């Protein structure tokens, strides 16, 4: 009987020890700066920029930051206070590991959001309109970028010019314009040069246009100028729901 109790006790201790081993602390940056942007900002593309363990967000809304930190399109980030669209932040953070993977950096960003913005989220599946970006009948009308070309993206009024970027930026921008998820079904995985000419009246980030706008819709422009097409359907889509968020605590 004593021997049995000892065996059970040792098993319990081993289980506790095993749990202690697997409960690793959350990944976090060594230093991080979060500052609200208090000046006007022109429309611009927002990205999670990673360079040797250093990440930057320039004038980004919290909804955009959350989406990039969790690997979901901004339009899949639901709920939260109204200011998460209007208040912008500059974020600079650094880890001492210059070889940190994108997944590790995203985990660090999630820790930072929980710490500085008191962010709490959960995943759900909802029925939503979902668009698929596919290759149109006559094939793509843009070229692969040259090896020695520098990446760039300019979303000016009425004109998009993108150099040496994959289609992720295009897909995410389309999702923002349509305010619904867009999936890349083109099978095009390299880096490309492409551009779109849109009406000056059309807002390049929201897709809104005034009544006098006679330019082709984004659907027609994609097919005519890029040889791509958007196909719509309704179905289940995973979303990230904001349960709680607060204004950021600064440095």
Structure, explained:
With 251 residues, this protein is of the alpha+beta class. It folds into two domains: 31-125 and 238-244, no CATH class; 127-237, no CATH class. It is built from six helices and twelve strands. The chain has helices at 2-22, 62-70, 83-86, 102-116, 168-178, 218-226, and strands at 31-36, 49-51, 54-61, 77-79, 88-94, 120-135, 143-144, 152-156, 159-165, 182-184, 192-197, 228-244. A hairpin with a 2-residue loop joins β8 (152-156) and β9. It is globular and about 50 Å long. Residues 4-8 and 201-214 have low confidence and may be disordered.
Descriptive key words:
251 residues, single chain, 4-stranded antiparallel beta sheet, alpha+beta, 4-stranded mixed beta sheet, 2 domains, 6 helices
Question: What is the element layout, followed by pairings?
Answer:
Layout: H1 2-22, E1 31-36, E2 49-51, E3 54-61, H2 62-70, E4 77-79, H3 83-86, E5 88-94, H4 102-116, E6 120-135, E7 143-144, E8 152-156, E9 159-165, H5 168-178, E10 182-184, E11 192-197, H6 218-226, E12 228-244
Parallel strand pairs: 4-12, 6-10
Antiparallel strand pairs: 1-5, 2-3, 3-5, 6-12, 7-11, 8-9, 9-11
Helix pairs in contact: 2-4
